[in-house]
Write a structure and sequence with these properties.
The complex is a heterodimer of chains A (387) and B (114).
Chain A: H1 2-13, E1 17-18, H2 62-70, H3 74-99, E2 106-109, H4 114-126, E3 131-136, H5 143-156, E4 159-163, H6 167-180, H7 185-190, H8 193-213, E5 217-219, E6 233-235, H9 238-256, H10 267-279, E7 286-288, H11 298-306, H12 326-337, H13 343-351, H14 357-365, E8 368-369, H15 370-380
Parallel strand pairs in A: 2-3, 2-5, 3-4, 5-7
Antiparallel strand pairs in A: 1-8, 6-7
Chain B: H1 4-15, H2 24-39, H3 61-75, H4 86-89, H5 92-105
Classes of the chains: A alpha/beta (387), B mainly alpha (114).
Chain lengths: 387, 114
């Protein structure tokens, strides 16, 4: 495909600014393809290159059509999960008050990006929870994101810990993820291989820490486009955790070898998990995505977190406010699969009215910073590769 | 020989007193279509109804969340915390059996989806 060749050439040449490999059709006229540009759904931002997509005669994709069917139930479901979260907090309040189990109510995956900064504020201030923020520094965290992490945790009065894995181990995992794309195709609709590897290690590390520190809730700042609403307050039963860890081992084991064991739960952790389940009388362990059942308005979020001392980084790509490798991972994904790894999330935000279609398309079409890409490629050893 | 899913779907079909209830065949087709379209990209060949979604590598942990979401949205069921175990979700037969049980237990005035 010509556009893929174009992407590879651009990745290799690294001019000062790189546009996505294919220009999208003009926003107002998306019903017919023009040249090699993919057709884009008339009501969201998914392109015709997205797996399994179909368009009706009005140029609307099957994902939008399904969403319309379920739309009337969304406010009710959102409220149901908000109530479920409140009920969980009540149960934990009663139980921890009597048992004074752990020192924290919530372990929050804190990248320093805008969504996780906002979620941290929501949990610490609006809900008044005892939050421990955990940052998994993948070696590509933007300098401004690290400064934001310090500023926001200090302003919110939140305890914070940072885990910085062996850079050599992560670098190898990222290089191999980009080279082999070891994830199910369905997973690659939602994010790049590199992002999946990073997020899987984050989630696994979160589980380990929560179990070892007896923290009953894991919180994530996933946007409403990333987290399915019906899974926004999810009980992690031991057998499901074990099965998911086993599946992760099958994917990352061949890439990471025994180094992966550092990030997976041990048998001792599973015994602890069983014990916690008993101590908390069933209310252990939950994964919560608060932004799925809360208002999500990007402007308001930015306004609020700026008041916490958060400053937007200037060297990340348009779809990340913390990670420097995200842009390169996105370009590789586009070159390999023909669609932007953020298209699915952005389409979800557009459908649900959290972003306008124009805003979604702008994020997809935003150019990548050439200087950042050059630095990342050098670090990955990808600066001398041939097309 | 009937699978656990067949038997369970027959039970689900036995409710049959609501015009919006899906028939056992519709439920079966809907589940299989969902897995085929979303996780197998249209190609059912080589896939077994007892194959573990997670261990075979066709579904990751977030994919599991999508399956849960699909069941709740499509059939109007509410999945309880302690039901979130692989025994209910990790193969087509397990999904079918679980869904049929939920549909049977669901109060009759609740919507049961398409």
């Amino acid at each position: 495909m010509g556009s893929n060749r174009c992407a590879r050439e651009e990745i290799l040449s690294t001019p000062s600014e790189i546009s996505p490999p294919f220009p999208f059709p003009e926003i107002s006229t998306t019903r017919e393809p023009r040249g090699e540009a993919p057709r884009v759904c008339r009501t969201c931002v998914l392109p015709s290159t997205f797996p399994g997509i179909r368009f009706n005669e009005d140029g609307v994709c099957n994902y939008c059509a399904d969403f319309q069917k379920n739309r009337p139930r969304i406010p009710i479901t959102r409220e149901r999960f908000r109530q479920k979260f409140l009920l969980l907090l009540n149960r934990l309040g009663e139980r921890t008050a009597s048992a004074r189990k752990g020192s924290f109510d919530v372990l929050m995956a804190y990248s320093g990006g805008k969504d996780s900064s906002y979620t941290l504020g929501l949990l610490a201030r609006s809900y008044g929870l005892r939050v421990l923020a955990l940052t998994f520094d993948n070696g590509f965290t933007a300098g401004q994101a690290l400064r934001n992490i310090q500023a926001v945790t200090e302003r919110l009065g939140v305890d914070h810990m940072i885990i910085r894995p062996d850079p050599g181990v992560l670098l190898h995992a990222f290089q191999e993820s980009i080279r082999t794309h070891p994830y199910p195709l369905k997973a690659l609709e939602r994010a790049s291989s590199l992002c999946h590897t990073c997020m899987n290690l984050v989630k696994s590390q979160m589980l380990k820490q929560a179990v070892q520190m007896s923290i009953p809730i894991l919180a994530f700042g996933w946007s409403p486009g990333q987290a399915p609403l019906s899974s926004s307050v999810l009980k992690l039963n031991p057998s499901m955790v074990r099965q998911m860890q086993r599946a992760l081992g099958q994917i990352l084991g061949p890439i990471m070898g025994s180094a992966l064991n550092r990030y997976l739960l041990t048998e001792r952790d599973y015994r602890l998990l069983d014990q916690e389940l008993e101590d908390y009388r069933g209310s252990f362990l939950y994964a919560v995505h608060p932004l799925a059942f809360h208002e999500y308005d990007e402007e308001r979020i930015l306004e609020e977190i700026k008041a916490f001392g958060w400053t937007p980084p200037t060297d990340t790509d348009a779809n990340s406010t913390n990670c420097l490798i995200n842009g390169y991972a996105s370009l590789v994904h586009i070159a390999k699969f023909g669609f932007h790894p953020y298209a699915f999330e952005l389409a979800g935000l557009v459908r649900s009215g959290h972003l306008t279609r124009e805003e979604g398309l702008t994020k997809i079409m935003a150019p990548f910073d050439g200087e950042t890409l050059k630095r990342i490629k050098k670090k990955l050893g990808a600066d001398n590769e041939n097309g | 020989m009937k699978t656990a899913e067949d038997l369970a779907l027959e039970m689900a079909g036995a409710r049959g007193n609501c015009p919006e209830d899906p028939s056992p065949m519709e439920v079966r087709r809907s589940l299989r279509d969902f897995i085929t379209e979303n996780f197998l990209f249209g190609d059912w060949n080589g896939f077994n109804e007892d194959t573990s979604f997670l261990e075979s590598g066709i579904v990751d942990s977030t994919g599991m969340l999508e399956i849960i979401n699909f069941l709740e949205e499509t059939y109007g069921i509410t999945i309880e915390d302690d039901e979130l175990v692989p025994e209910n979700f990790d193969s087509l037969n397990q999904l079918g059996a679980f869904l049929a049980r939920k549909l049977r237990e669901q109060p009759e005035d609740e919507p049961s989806g398409r």
